[in-house]
């Protein structure tokens, strides 16, 4: 076996071992302390470049927390604050990726009055939905 092939196989072995260790550690590290807050509020106007989803059939109910946040925001006509649904436990951080990468997430520039998020038409209102996720750190080692 030539040296280049041996080095390549060694590098791949290190990468696979590191990935397996990280996955095993994540599964056993108790990421029950992961929290994602899905928030929604009613908006008056939609940014010109934003794609607006129509959720008359409740399709977004399949995304945990999103349907509930939308319904609460519309039912309570929340405009100045955010109506939030907090979810905790395994895999809740993936909700942020679902909203920002799998749905048409509008990213606002800093100088405009619109919020970043997914714009949804629900009932007679338009709602912007966003999510923030974090993990609690139990102990720090220095």
Mean pLDDT: 81
Multimeric status of the protein: single chain
End-to-end distance? 44 Å
The computed structural class is alpha+beta
Strand proportion, as a percent range, falls in 15-25%
The succession of helices and strands, N to C, reads HEEHEHEE
| CA-based gyration radius | 20 Å
Outline? elongated
The residue fraction in helices comes out at: 25-40%
What spatial order of strands do you see in the largest sheet? 2-4-5-1-3
Largest sheet descriptor: 5 strands, mixed
Q: What's the β-strand tally?
A: 5
Helix count equals 3
Low-confidence blocks of residues: none
Care to describe what's here?
The protein starts with a helix and ends in a 7-residue tail after the last strand. The protein has a five-stranded mixed β-sheet. With 142 residues, the chain is of the alpha+beta class. The protein is elongated, with a radius of gyration of 20 Å. The chain has three helices and five strands; from the N terminus they run αββαβαββ.
Give a topology summary.
Elements: H1 3-28, E1 34-43, E2 52-54, H2 66-75, E3 83-88, H3 94-102, E4 118-122, E5 125-135
Parallel strand pairs: 2-4
Antiparallel strand pairs: 1-3, 1-5, 4-5
Kindly list the characteristics that best describe this protein.
25% strand; 5-stranded mixed β-sheet; alpha+beta; single chain; 142 residues
Compact overview of the structure:
The chain has helices at residues 3-28, 66-75, 94-102; strands spanning 34-43, 52-54, 83-88, 118-122, 125-135. With 142 residues, it is an alpha+beta fold.
């Amino acid at each position: 076996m030539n040296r280049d092939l041996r080095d390549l196989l060694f590098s791949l072995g290190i990468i696979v071992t590191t990935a397996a260790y990280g996955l095993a550690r994540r599964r056993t590290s108790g990421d029950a302390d992961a929290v994602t807050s899905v928030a929604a509020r009613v908006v008056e106007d939609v940014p010109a470049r934003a794609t607006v989803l129509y959720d008359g059939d409740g399709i977004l109910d399949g995304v945990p927390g999103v349907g509930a946040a939308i319904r609460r925001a519309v039912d309570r006509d929340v405009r100045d604050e955010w109506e939030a649904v907090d979810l905790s436990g395994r895999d809740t951080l993936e909700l942020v990726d679902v909203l920002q990468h799998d749905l048409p997430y509008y990213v606002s520039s800093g100088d405009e009055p619109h919020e970043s998020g997914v714009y949804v038409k629900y009932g007679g209102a338009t709602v912007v939905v966003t999510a923030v996720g974090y993990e609690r750190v139990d102990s720090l080692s220095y």
